[in-house]
Amino acid sequence: MKYEDGIGKIIISEDEIKKKIAETGEKISREYAGKPLLLVSILKGAFVFLADLVRTVDIPCEIGFMCAQSYYSGTTSSGSVEITLDLQQDISNYHVIIVEDIIDTGRTLHDVVQLLRLRSPKSLKVITLLDKPEKRAVDFNADLSLFTIPDLFVIGYGLDCGELYRNLPYIAEYNG
Ligand code: IMP
Ligand code: MG
Fold first, then answer.
1. Which of 45, 98, 41, 91 is nearest to 65 (CA)?
2. pTM for this predicted structure
3. At residue 83, what are phi and psi to the nearest 5 degrees?
4. What is the CA radius of gyration of the chain?
């Protein structure tokens, strides 16, 4: 299939994303002022979201990366989560916010949160750009979801299909 043919209807525009992220950055800056803050992005999908979000945060903060893989190919969840890259920091002195691209079955974040809790951060919250509540397989919810979407496979703004389309500046439906 041609690359362009995979790009379906735009579900969330660049402007809508930008506006929500600005609000979120303000909120974080207010709530975490004076606290040691660590924003943890789950690679690869959340790298674009973190990069934009962090530039709307105007208090001191550090960033970290973890790589958790739950989708090995195609558009369905494999059912198991593998941590292939872990944080370098000791998080016990930080208020940690996990920054994720999308919550689908909830398995990835359920496992990541369980792992990070064992390391006793000062606090632990989860912010996700997108939430697909219809597909939840485990009981997990973010502290903040910027957009709730129906059960569609989406691409762009960090989200891929077969490693492509992460560079689209908006969120679109994937035309499979
Ligand atoms: P979960 O473990 O099922 O919640 O899946 C979370 C991960 O699956 C996300 O971090 C994404 O990498 C991937 N994922 C889930 N839904 C989509 C989608 O619609 N498009 C692209 N990736 C997705
Ligand atoms: Mg992801």
1. 41
2. 0.94
3. -90, 110
4. 16
